[in-house]
Design a protein that fits this description.
Layout (H helix, E strand, L loop, with lengths): L8 H19 L8 E2 L1 H8 L3 H13 L3 E4 L3 E4 L4 H21 L6 H19 L3 H17 L4 H13 L1 H8 L2 H20 L2 H10 L2 H19 L1
Antiparallel strand pairs: 1-3, 2-3
């Protein structure tokens, strides 16, 4: 990851807004893999100067959501099959390790907080409030994995989850997969409460696979369409 000087204070807020909006466009599939990101058009959309857009795209490139190609400019990163498999291998390894470090049976305070987030998550799914669904899902996982007691491991889990934004979007677009995710959250809380280590580990590893499989299925269909 490259290191750049921080933006001036007068543009930091609008820069964060642009980055957040583009992230959500990728998360919710409004921007598709390999879709070009034109600075001039984005500057008009957000009513900001082009240097703000340039900085936002550079930040997204640093985090792996955007790719820059010579003579083509920036576009939403397209993850191939090998990329997806390797990213998810890392996610599985990290989440398994974190699940094995969480103290069991879990503290009542942790279980209560996860139940609170879970209830709000289910309500957001029922209301089809996908923006809230996404953020509550992240909050659930951040809270769960923070209990492993290793902030570097927790940060690594969050970084790979962030990298997988475009892949994870295939789950958030499917109501059946969203309900499945919520049910798995409930099962994780139950495993924490009764001190079932192996069940917790299994859930933390298998929980991320439906999004991966949905993305790979769509990717293969797209390859087939191109071949035809």
């Amino acid at each position: 990851m490259s290191v750049r000087p921080p933006p001036p204070a007068d543009v930091s807020i609008e820069l964060a807004d642009v980055i957040g909006a583009l992230e959500e466009d990728i998360i919710f599939g409004r921007l598709k893999p390999r879709e070009r990101l034109i600075e001039e058009g984005l500057a008009r959309r957000f009513a900001v100067k082009r240097h703000v857009i340039r900085e936002a795209l550079a930040e997204l490139e640093d985090h792996g959501l955007v790719a820059k190609e010579r003579n083509k400019g920036c576009m939403v990163r397209d993850f191939g099959i090998r990329d997806v498999e390797q990213i998810y291998e890392m996610r599985e390894l990290l989440q398994e390790r974190a699940a094995r470090r969480i103290r069991l049976p879990a503290e009542a305070r942790l279980v209560a907080r996860l139940n609170e987030i879970h209830r709000a998550h289910v309500e957001a799914i029922t209301a089809a409030d996908l923006r809230r669904v996404f953020h509550l899902n992240n909050e659930f996982h951040d809270t769960l994995f923070a209990a492993c007691g290793n902030p570097y491991l927790t940060e690594s889990i969050a970084e790979y989850a962030y990298l997988a934004h475009a892949i994870r979007s295939y789950r958030i677009a499917d109501p059946v997969l969203l309900r499945q995710a919520a049910e798995e959250h409930a099962q994780m809380i139950a495993a924490l409460g009764r001190g079932d280590r192996e069940e917790l580990v299994r859930l933390c590893v298998e929980h991320i696979n439906p999004a991966k499989e949905a993305y790979l299925h769509a990717y293969r269909l797209q390859l087939g369409a191109y071949a035809g």
